[in-house]
Amino acid sequence: MRSPVSCLLGMATICLLAGASGLGAQAEKPLLGFPGERTQAQRELETRFDAALDTATLRQWTERLSSRAHHVGSPFGKEVAEYLAEQFRAWGYDSRIETFDVLFPTPRTRRLEMIAPTRFVATLEEPDLPEDPTSGQKSEQLPTYNAYSADGNVTAELVYVNYGIPADYDTLARRGIDVTGKIVIARYGGSWREIKPKVAPEHGAIGCIIYSDPRDDGYGQGDVYPEGPYRRPDGAQRGSVSDMPLFFPETR
Prior knowledge:
CATH architecture of the largest domain: 3-Layer(bba) Sandwich
Order of helices and strands: EHHHEEEEEHEHEHEH
CATH topology of the largest domain: Glucose Oxidase, domain 1
Distance between the termini: 29 Å
Strand order of the largest sheet: 6-7-8
Helix content: 25-40%
Structural class: alpha/beta
Oligomer: single chain
CATH class of the largest domain: Alpha Beta
């Protein structure tokens, strides 16, 4: 499926630097990259920059830009690009919008089911949150899935593979556990996401499930949203499992 992508190209680069106020004696030290008198000039510039920030305006912009889902190819994504371009023009920058066609697959059918020893069908959907009025926008949200996953319909035994990285398969092999013809389940972490479904078939697996373990990014680390920053037990990641090293060999 080809989806149009609206990108904002603003002819400006903005660098946000932390101010030095409140650092005590450390504030008197020269700033890295600003030798001699340039340190004081930089501090004065940062002070003027900080004074120009308006938290109410920043909150207004953030609420507007996050009010609806705006993934690639979405209607609100285009509105966001147009709004930002308009803002940059109002500030005197040369801004324009360009459109690109990209391959962005979205699933038609998703089903995850355990058939034995008991039957369980995963909802594959996050619940609405009273604290987040945008969480109920199901018609515009992307479903819970990983883009560029392989198509297929497989049924097999399930094998837990820890983080699903090469070292984990080495450990399984030493214990006499073979994943050939099996579906593996791996938790997020330990590597970039796309490594897990890449390494799994290299060891003979026919499917790969990835889940978020609360020990890694949920209540095992601290308070979950909205009381804290960590993932709720019923939260799910969305992302891509494209083989990045395949397209960027210099990153290998």
